[in-house]
Design brief:
The protein is α/β, with parallel strands linked by helices and 473 residues long. The chain has helices at residues 18-21, 31-44, 60-68, 84-96, 106-113, 119-122, 131-143, 148-160, 180-185, 233-245, 262-274, 292-300, 315-320, 327-344, 361-374, 391-395, 421-436, 439-449, 456-470; strands at 8-12, 50-52, 74-78, 100-104, 125-126, 200-203, 206-207, 229-230, 250-253, 281-285, 303-311, 347-354, 378-383.
Amino acid sequence: MNGSGHPVVVLRVDREAGRHTGHPRHLHPALDLLYVQAGLEDTLKVAVPLLDGWLGDFSVDAYVARVLALRPRVAVIRAVTWCLEESVRVAAALRAAGVVTIAIGQQVQHVARARFRGWGEAYDLALPGEPEEEAPRLALRVLAGEDLAALREECRRRMNAGEIALVEAPDALPRPRFGRDALKEYAFPFPVRGRPVSRWGYVLTAWGCPRPCRHCTAIVRKSVGRDLRVRAVADVVDEVLALKAAGAQAIAFEDDSLLVHRSRFLQLAEELVRRGVDLPWMANARPDELDAERVAAAAAAGAVLLKVGVDSGSARLIERLGKTADGAGWIAATEAAFERLDRAGVGSVALFMVGMPDETEDDAEGTLALARRIRPDYLQMQIYRPYPDVPLWGELPPQLRTHGADYHYLTPASSCSRIPPAALTALQRRFYRAFYLRPGFVARHLARHWRHYLSPAGLARAPGALAYLLRGA
C-alpha cells in the first residue's frame, strides 16, 4: 500500500437485503459505523469512506475491489452472524492485500462464544461491544505504528475475559454525517400517518437498555450495555434540527427504547415542541412504557409511528423470555397501549416472533389472535433465531443454536420451539396473509395512506409487498 490512499475505511458487510425477504424492508444505517467514521475524520482531518454493503447487490469480489481501489491502510469491518462467511471472505482478501483488518459488531460477540472457520486468518484485531469510542482509538493506534502482535494479544485477552467496549461519554461523540442521498437511501419503505415522507434522518439519544430480556441480540439492538447512558436533551434536539436543515423530512430515533426513562422522554418531547421542530418521527418502545402520559407527550411532539416489541401473545412465553414476571399483565398492557396509540393518532408496528424456545402452535395462535385484537398499522413476524450473544443460546443443545447463515426471514435449518422448522416459515406467511389481506385492514390502510401510493416510490414498492403476501405457504 502506498501513501496516496485513505488511511482508514469503514465497512458494513451484509448480503443484499432483497434476498432475505422478497418484500420491501427497512434498511437502517449503521449508526455505530457513522460514529466511528466521524470520530476518525475529526482526528485525522481527512475523509474516511464508508461503504455500506447492505445497499444494492452485494458481491464479495466486487466489494473487495471497491475497497482496495481506495488504498486503505486499515479497514474497520462491521458484520453480524448471518453474514459471517461474507465478512471472513472480505477481511481475508483485504488482509492478504496488506490492509489491517479490525472486526466490530455482533460478529465479534458471536466468535467470542462460537468459533468460525477462517476468522483468525481474516482479522488482525477484534473489538466486542459498542465501537463508537474504542474503534477509532484502536485504528489510530495501528496508524501510529504500535506493534500489531501486541495489539492482537490485547484484543485476544479482552475477548477471552468477556470484556466489551461501552460508550462512556455520549455527549463527547462527534455527530454522524448524513448527506442528502443517505437520507433517501435509508427511507422507511411503508407509509406513515400524515404527509408522505421520503427522506429520513437517524438519531441515537442513549446507549444501553436496562431491561433483563433473555432473548435479545445485538443484531437488532443499537447498543450492548445494560446501564443507560444518555445524551443531553438539548444536544439531541440540536442534531434533529441539523438533520432537518440538511433535508430530512422525518426522524427515526434509534434507541433500543426511546421511552424507557419516563422523565427524560417527557423532557425530550417537551423540548421538541418548545423549539418548534415540527418533524414527524418514529421510535422503538415496549407496551408497558406506553402509559397515557407518555403516549400523549409523544403525539404532541410529532410521533407518527412507534415500533412496539410485543414478542408473543403467550403469557408463559413472555415470562420465560424475561420480558416481565407477569405475562398476563404484559398482554393486558399491550391491548391498552395500542388502543391509546390509535386514539392519539400515532401509528404502530407490532413486533412479534414465532419459534421461540418451548413455543407450541397453540402459543403461536394466541399471538395471531392478539395481533388481530390490537389492530396495529403493521405487523412484523420474525422467526426467532438464538444467536450466540444471548443468554438463551447457552441453554440450548448445540444442534439448536444458530451458528451461521440462518436469518429470521429464511426457512430455518432448526427450531428451538416445539414447532418443526419447515412449519415455521409457513406459519409466518399465514400470519402475514391473515393480517394484511383482511378487508378491514386494507380499507383502513388505504383510507389513511392513499397519498403514499400516488408517489412513484410507493407505486414501485406495492407490487413486491403484495406478491410476497400472496406466495403459497
